[in-house]
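BUG-307 | component: ligand-complex export | severity: low

The export step for (R)-mevalonate jobs runs without errors, but we want the raw record kept on the ticket for reference. Input record follows.
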Amino acid sequence: MKAVAEAPGKAIITGEHFVVHGAWSLAAALQMKVRVEATDSEKLTIDSDRFAAGTPGLKPVRDFVQSLLSEFSWSQRMRLSIKSDLPHGAGLGSSAATMVAVVAAVSRLRGHPFTVEETISRSMVGETDVHGKASGVDPTVCAMGGVVLFRRGSKPRRVVPQHGLSLLVAFTGKSRSTKGQIAKVVAVRNASQGFFDGLAGSISGVSKTAAEELRTGDLIGLGRLLAFNHALLATLGVSSRELDALVEELTSMGCYGAKLTGAGGGGSVVAVAPEGKEKRIISRLKARGIEAYQSHVPAGGVKSWVE
Ligand code: MEV
């Protein structure tokens, strides 16, 4: 028997970093996915199309799977095969989508498929190991799919866009460590608590307004909020020359707004483009060697089945 699970990547539309400290964030699942196949085997084996067996990149997944299996007293004799459409370290949720798909595939193979809520709380354990102080927004949106307004400790709210929306995502080609970026922001907060809290309050307002713009289909208003959010993130020191240049470029190509997405310091930019212009913008970026994708919103959440 083979258990299969697929979980989407994510783009944070607004509120990354501040969400770790209690602000609201808006995030969307992407159409790009991670697929995990689980089968019974002689011993625990994990292979991935991103990392060679035994390399450090697979260690967090291996540690996570081992602790999940022992927590439920499930047999460790299992083979997991991981395939990902998502670039690693690009801020597009490859680690959260991997954890979510692993939890779903493992629990399905062992005959106790977890609910979405259980999948999120189990995946959080792996996320915290990888990211340090994680908010939970990444595994939540990768498991739930769609667009989610999220705050630590509150029930996630699903946001249904008025009409199908496409997000553009462009990768700087530079990967970075989320843990290091989160630590940088914690240092800013510790140095200037009042200043930071003011920005966090403002970002909560931005996320709620962005959810409203999505509901009503006001893409110009949404783009404006993205531009504002990018400026705040740059103030925290989590942008980079490459990210700023990509934001500038997407805006000059006609996008309503663009910002870094995820932890920053490298990684990717998310943008809102006028309807119908997405493909042209993507082919212009690709012609310049920049990896770029269009993702329709809403995209589905985690799925698992037996083959
Ligand atoms: C990473 O996608 C988003 C961060 O806010 C971390 C987190 O919320 O766990 C940087």
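Assignee comment: Attached the raw record above. Residues 12, 16-17, 19-20, 131, 134-135, 137-138, 178, 182, 262-263 surround (R)-mevalonate (CB under 6 Å).
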